[in-house]
Amino acid sequence: MIEKMSLVANARMYAVTPAVAAAWRALFDRVARDSGVPLTWIDHAAPAPLEALWARDDLGAAFMCGYPFASAASKPRLLAAPVPAPARYGGRPQYCTDFIVRADSQFTQLQETFGGRIGWTVAHSQSGYNAVRHHLLRHERPQPLYRNWVGPLVTPRGVIAAVLADGIDVGPLDSYVHDLLKQHDPATASRLRVVESTTMTPIPPLIASPIVDDATVTRLRGSLLACADAPEMRATLDTLLITRFAEIGAAAYDIFPRWARAADAGGVPAPRGIT
User: Looking at domain 2-89+203-250, what is its CATH homologous superfamily?
Assistant: First the structure.
């Protein structure tokens, strides 16, 4: 029975610094105690593929990008989604992609990077790939907008490194990752500048394995939703730049495959390898 399995938890997608990773671990420890569902923290650090994490039968709580979630043949169990605290999120479980350049570059608008080099993370990423291609539909011309699509850069840190090393002119950065960096790694964030952002879409949710039973999912979800009401969790949530967790339905993520199809139909290149 799944109740007797040892479930694992992971927050690699948003564990942007050691301090933030420690806060996520503290949150999952609290969720485990409150729900009565034991959770063992695992790092699953890059370059280990996130697909391998999401495929684990013993996955109890982990962030999953909305694009692969919506495309999954066997749907993971949705737990809840974070509501980022910064004002631009409007108190909703949403995020966007920031197009970043070096702070000391000459670029002030996304259009000024056309003809240059753009980075991308991995083909299953919403913020680092799918959102980029869809956003460029509003700018697409008969000729490709960029001379090179450079990737896969795999992680947000990979995109940042490529921007700062002048390996690319512009790159996509998950906006919640970006805000966490501003708070916890200002030295790096200060070297970046946003020239444009995509529209807001549902933020990656916390999910469990498809085989986790209903009772366990209910307990885990209830504990996540109750975090905002627990005074002892306030400092942890502040570190994570979230106000609360919210329930979200699977249908909210159906927009992402539609975006991919629109980009394909619109002729936006679909890069597959390093260029």
Answer: Periplasmic binding protein-like II (3.40.190.10)
| Its pTM surpasses 0.90 | yes
Helix segments in 112-155, DSSP class H = 131-135
Burial class (CB in 10 A: 0-12, 13-18, 19+), 92: middle
Q: How many CB atoms lie within 10 A of CB 29?
A: 14
Rounded Cα–Cα distance for residues 121 and 149 (Å):
10
Pairing of strands 117-119, 148-150: parallel
Total Cβ atoms within 10 A of residue 231: 6
- Topology alike, domains 2-89+203-250 and 97-199: yes
Query: Could you tell me the two tokens for 196?
Result: 């444009």
- Tell me how crowded residue 63 is: count the other CB atoms within 10 A of its CB: 22
User: What phi, psi does 8 have (nearest 5°)?
Assistant: -115, 155
Answer for the pair 84, 203: CB distance below 8 angstroms, yes or no: yes
Q: Is the CB of residue 175 less than 8 Å from the CB of residue 80?
A: no
Comparing C-alpha atoms, which of 69, 44, 53 is closest to residue 126? 69
Residues 157-186 pLDDT 10s: 999 999 999 999 999 999 999 999 999 999
- Predicted local distance difference test score (pLDDT) of residue 4: 55
Where are the domains positioned within the chain?
A: 2-89+203-250, 97-199
What is the CATH class of 97-199? alpha beta
Q: What is the band of 271 on the pLDDT scale with cuts at 50, 70, 90?
A: confident
